[in-house]
């Protein structure tokens, strides 16, 4: 069989890893404050509310809330409670969503299968 007639085999896992850069296992896990900030920002945006509106409701500056959402500031538990209250997001939902995001990040970084034990997602 001529070289031009041979089928081409492409390892998609290697190709995707090469396209996205260094392996995620080499990168550190996100900080908890960054995860909580992302969740708060996502919730605020889902409600079509501005930083100024939520900051005013909480009694903090818009700049501080922005830094919390970007994971640059470590908010106190009281501050998280206040922001969650202003968003109508129960604090336990923030905590649970944070755990889920960290778990997914850890599974992706370590290559552990997603889903319940004994189940593995494979791409064809």
From TrEMBL:
Coiled-coil residue windows: none
A Pfam family the protein falls into: HTH_3
Domain HTH cro/C1-type positions: 40-94
GO cellular component: cytosol
Residue segments, region Disordered: 1-28
Key words of the record: DNA-binding
Signal peptide per UniProt: none
UniProt xrefs under CDD domains: HTH_XRE
Origin: domain of life: Bacteria
Molecular function per GO: DNA binding; DNA-binding transcription factor activity
Key word Protease present: no
Biased composition (Basic and acidic residues): 13-26
InterPro entries attached to this UniProt entry: Cro/C1-type_HTH (IPR001387), Lambda_DNA-bd_dom_sf (IPR010982), TransReg_Diox_bact_type (IPR050807)
Record's protein name: Helix-turn-helix transcriptional regulator
Organism: Rhodococcus spelaei
Top-level taxonomy: Bacteria, Bacillati, Actinomycetota, Actinomycetes, Mycobacteriales
């Amino acid at each position: 069989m001529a070289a031009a007639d041979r089928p081409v085999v492409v390892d998609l896992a290697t190709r995707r890893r090469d396209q996205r850069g260094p392996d995620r296992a080499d990168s550190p896990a996100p900080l908890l404050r960054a995860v909580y900030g992302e969740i708060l920002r996502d919730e605020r945006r889902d409600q079509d509310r501005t930083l100024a509106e939520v900051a005013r409701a909480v009694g903090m500056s818009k700049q501080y809330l922005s830094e919390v959402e970007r994971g640059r500031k470590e908010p106190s538990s009281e501050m998280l409670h206040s922001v969650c209250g202003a968003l109508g997001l129960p604090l336990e939902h923030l905590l649970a969503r944070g755990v889920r995001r960290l778990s997914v990040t850890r599974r992706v970084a370590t290559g552990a299968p997603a889903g319940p034990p004994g189940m593995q997602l494979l791409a064809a």
